[in-house]
Design goal:
It is built from ten helices and 21 strands. With 375 residues, the protein is α+β, with helices and mostly antiparallel strands. A hairpin with a 2-residue loop joins strand 9 and strand 10. The chain starts with a strand and ends with a helix.
């Protein structure tokens, strides 16, 4: 491979999703930042619910007005949820008493494109379509080599004082260092999109014997439908095709009602990991893992994207407080690593507690393996 570009910067952020872009926006006013992602542009993703508390983050990043102006393109208001969890009776969960107001249903692809555009405006160095190939530490810097995902012979080398691994569950940088991930369960999400024919603007969650269903309206008159179960509890033939997905959804009363109106427009998107995982080490010599690269959540929590954004701002505050970019081997660096690790540990413990609490409310199928595993 031939080197096409070599750069020396303060902070290299690996991963241009929600976590990486938020960190780049927050840090670019104080540091020379490079943001690198293997995708040339965002792709469709299953996550689409952003918690009301994200409004505070948008304000802090001076993005709230611009984000809210993108209604019907990037987002629409999340009016609440109709829940069939714990009983067959309908329960309505709404955000009317939430001090942050309403949250959002997102077009995830458009949202990530919006964040990428804001990163570029903040003068960060952006490299789209490059994947981490090699990393080594020398002379108080990380030397990172990235290979083009489009042209095999093309690569870039970045010399960074600090590295942020925001590459999602794959945690590419941490894996290069030999750091393993710990999985709490085997949850997967099988998902599809279809035209929204529902009058109700509420999301729907519905428990079933071997997992749970979720559906929600999206911008541009679309709707998501997803089934969450453990990867070893369902025949793989039920996961691979649109027809099999439709047949599976027919067994759930609420999903069948939605499909009866819109199944001719359904687009099957396949399977993605949805399990709760954590990196066994989230920080080290001049690096941290951020967002899903550090800890990933069950979609039941609806906190994945918010946690990624909040985590990025917490990291920004810690870097400002300890000033370790300019003093990488000082005593402050050790305090930084300890404090960051403790923050992630506290978030993880809080998350696990509430995850178990919520799953424990569903007792109708306590004798079934999916639910027994979560008691």
């Amino acid at each position: 491979m031939e080197i096409s570009q070599s750069n020396s910067i303060d902070i290299a952020i690996i991963g241009g999703g929600v976590a990486g872009c938020t960190a780049a926006i927050a840090l670019s006013s104080s540091y020379n930042v490079a943001l690198i992602d293997k995708l040339t542009e965002p792709i469709e993703r299953v996550g689409e619910c952003l918690a009301p508390a994200a409004r505070r983050i948008f304000k802090q990043l001076n993005l709230l007005d611009e984000f809210e102006s993108k209604i019907k393109v990037i987002h629409q208001r999340n009016n609440g949820m109709q829940s069939y969890w714990g009983s067959n009776n309908l329960q309505i969960v709404d955000p009317l008493r939430n001090p942050d107001g309403f949250g959002w249903q997102l077009n995830r692809k458009e949202f990530e494109s919006f964040l990428r555009e804001r990163v570029t405006e903040r003068s960060a160095n952006c490299f789209w379509g490059y994947q981490l190939f090699q990393c080594k530490y020398e002379d108080e810097h990380w030397i990172l080599t990235f290979a083009s995902t489009n042209e095999i012979s093309k690569k870039i080398v970045i010399k960074a004082k600090f590295v942020i691994d925001a590459s999602g569950r794959q945690s590419h940088f941490a894996r290069k260092l030999g750091i393993e991930r710990q999985s709490e369960d085997k949850l997967i999400s099988v998902w599809a999109t279809l035209t929204n024919e529902e009058i109700s603007t509420l999301s729907t969650i519905s428990a079933s014997q071997s997992g749970w269903w979720y559906s929600a309206p999206l911008p541009n008159n679309k709707r998501i439908m997803a089934f969450q179960t453990d990867s070893d509890l369902i025949e793989h033939t039920q996961l691979k095709t649109k027809e099999a997905f439709i047949d599976l959804a027919q067994n759930n009363v609420q999903m069948k009602a939605i499909l009866d109106k819109g199944k001719n427009s359904i687009q099957f998107n396949g399977i993605v990991a949805a399990n709760s995982t954590r990196l066994k080490q989230v920080t080290g010599q001049q690096w941290v893992a951020l967002g899903d690269a550090a800890i990933s959540f069950d979609p039941l929590s609806s906190q994945g994207m918010f946690n990624a954004m909040a985590n990025a701002l917490q990291l920004t505050d810690l870097l400002s407080q300890h000033q370790i970019i300019s003093q990488p081997n000082s005593e402050k660096a050790q305090h930084f690593q300890k404090e960051y690790s403790e923050q992630i540990n506290q978030i993880w413990k809080h998350y696990l507690h509430h995850k178990r609490l919520f799953y424990s409310h569903e007792l109708r199928w306590i004798d079934r393996e999916f639910w027994r595993r979560r008691m």
